[in-house]
Specification:
heterodimer; A: about 260 residues; alpha/beta; Lyase 2-enoyl-coa Hydratase, Chain  A, domain 2; 2 domains; six-stranded mixed β-sheet; 12 helices; 10 strands; about 45% helix; about 15% strand; globular; B: about 260 residues; 9 helices
Chain lengths: ~260, ~260
């Protein structure tokens, strides 16, 4: 049983947790409140041993169409700095479980940044990704300049961020921003299937794999390889590693226990 | 002068009948008609009571394409028109919407379908055609390329050999020949074309609309997976053609009702 929230909906299906952004009238604009509740839900699922993977989604029309502009329009440099709205975003990064973004409709500005904070992105055919902050006189502030560039390269990132123009799901697939594009109606089915596939693996291995992959962006190859190796060695004190390798040798499916 | 009635929509038995209504201009497209058609398509898309659509023309023509007397092509380089812009704003959304709208769309071709009018007919899912109707790829006659999808829809339907012949000659393709080429579902007498089309569409309207819609989506993916990309490409190439001397001459000759003299530039 999960907590009840005001701006998001959560449910657990087996060992998958689903978080649905739920501010339909605002096209899921990422208000302070919503981000706070999102992080709380992620914390909750991160601590729940039954949950192996998390799906983050919005509505059919919009994943999230940006930040809540009205909330910040009148701030000045000092007040917005003290508000520290991006601190909440940092907490999204701390989630140890794999998060799959299932994006339908608008993923613009903060919406695009939120999707990019996730580990895998499945897009519906209707999905549109963009960083339109330039149109309102600012720049992406929740990671857009960093994550978009790392995902699609300098040239496409420059084009998208400097023009503010959105791209379609199909172009997003072509440039490597999303993993897969599917028909709208089966977006969640697809995300579930992927989440369930990951959920079958050893959760400790999944956790350490995610950690090692994310390290790539923070470190040199030498340090990265060292980190990877340490995580690799760490797994040799897990029962899942013993079971996994034993099962392989015995030519049978592994029965992971998460220990 | 804005005429509210240049596009009519009626509803009947689950069918929406969209009529291009500028009969004295052979239903040619001025700015307003293209936007009204875009709006009409959006309207019938959202209307759950509409399960199939018929598009037809009032009077003796189906649609003669771009109204050359009424060109508002937007600002281009120097003094020349920007056709690319015009296509992107006015025509491409029509073709895209017709293909993406997941309801069966029947063109009731009651008369001449020329230029973008032919493109319009070809974009539809079905064509019920009057036996005295005709199709013309009239674009090259005014020094332009076929647009609104014709450059890829027509070759994919009849092969590039016959398609290029029609495009380069800009000659009239009679209904019977069009039928023999496989462009037409049903050839009927001119006084029954609309009623036949409505009957055809009404039958579809009673069908498994969800399955029809998904079938159209799948066939689109098979036959026009690159729809938007190719429409955009046409816009780019038409921009170039629109800056040519032959386009200026072509339109001038058309208005002056004489043969054009092309320089090849």
């Amino acid at each position: 049983m999960t907590m009840t929230y005001k701006t998001i909906l959560t449910e657990i299906e087996g060992n998958i947790a689903i978080i649905r952004l739920n501010r339909p009238k605002a096209l899921n604009a990422l208000s302070h409140e919503l981000m706070g509740e999102l992080v709380e839900a992620l914390n909750e699922f991160d601590r729940d041993d039954k949950v192996r993977a998390i799906i983050l989604t919005g509505s059919d029309r919009a994943f999230a169409a940006g930040a809540d502009i009205k909330e910040m329009a009148d701030e000045d440099t000092v007040s917005i700095m003290l508000k520290d709205q991006f601190a909440t975003w940092d907490r999204v990064r701390q989630c140890k479980k794999p998060i799959i973004a299932a994006v339908s409709g608008f993923a613009l500005g903060g919406g695009c940044e939120l999707a990019m904070t996730c580990d895998i992105i499945i897009a519906a055919e209707s999905a549109q990704f963009g960083q339109p902050e330039i149109n309102i006189g600012v720049i992406p502030g929740a990671g857009g300049t960093q994550r978009l560039t790392r995902a699609v390269g300098k040239y496409k990132a420059m084009e998208m961020i400097l023009t503010g123009r959105p791209i379609t799901a199909s172009e997003a697939l072509q440039i490597g921003l999303v993993n897969k594009v599917v028909a709208n109606e089966i977006l969640l089915d697809e995300a579930r299937a992927l989440a369930e596939e990951i959920a079958k693996k050893s959760p400790i291995a999944v956790r350490l794999a995610k950690e090692a992959i994310l390290k790539v962006f923070d470190t040199s190859i030498t340090e990265g390889l060292e980190f990877e190796r340490k995580n690799f060695y760490m797994l040799f004190s897990s029962e899942d590693q013993k079971e996994g390798m034993k099962a392989f040798i015995e030519k049978r499916p592994a029965a992971f226990t998460g220990r | 002068m804005s005429d509210e009635n240049i596009l009519l929509i009626e509803r009947q038995d689950g069918v929406a009948i969209i009529t291009l209504n500028r009969p004295d201009k052979l239903n040619s497209f001025n700015d307003e008609l293209t936007f009204k058609l875009q709006d009409a398509l959006k309207e019938v898309e959202k209307d759950d009571s509409v399960r199939s659509i018929v598009i037809t023309g009032a009077g003796r023509g189906f649609c003669a394409g771009q109204d050359l007397q009424n060109r508002n092509f937007g600002e281009g380089q120097g003094k020349r028109a920007s056709l690319g812009d015009s296509i992107r704003r006015r025509y491409n959304p029509i073709v895209t919407k017709i293909r993406r709208l997941e309801k069966p769309i029947v063109a009731a071709v009651n008369g001449v379908a020329a230029g973008a009018g032919m493109s319009l007919a070809l974009a539809c899912d079905f064509r019920i055609v009057a036996d005295n109707a005709s199709f013309i790829q009239s674009f090259t006659k005014v020094g332009l390329i076929p647009d609104s999808g014709s450059t890829f829809v027509l070759p994919r339907m009849i092969g590039p050999t016959k398609a290029l012949e029609l495009m380069y000659s800009a000659e009239k393709l009679e209904a019977q020949t069009a039928f023999d080429l496989g462009l037409i579902n049903k050839l009927v007498s001119s006084d029954t074309v609309l009623s036949e089309a409505i009957e055809f569409a009404a039958k579809l309207a009673k069908g498994p609309s969800k399955a029809f819609g998904l079938t159209k989506r799948a066939v689109n993916k098979a036959i026009f997976p690159d729809l938007e990309e190719l429409l955009e490409y046409e816009a780019q190439l038409q921009e170039i053609a629109g800056r040519s001397d032959d386009f200026e001459e072509g339109v001038k000759a058309f208005i002056e009702k004489r043969q054009p003299v092309y320089s090849g530039k």
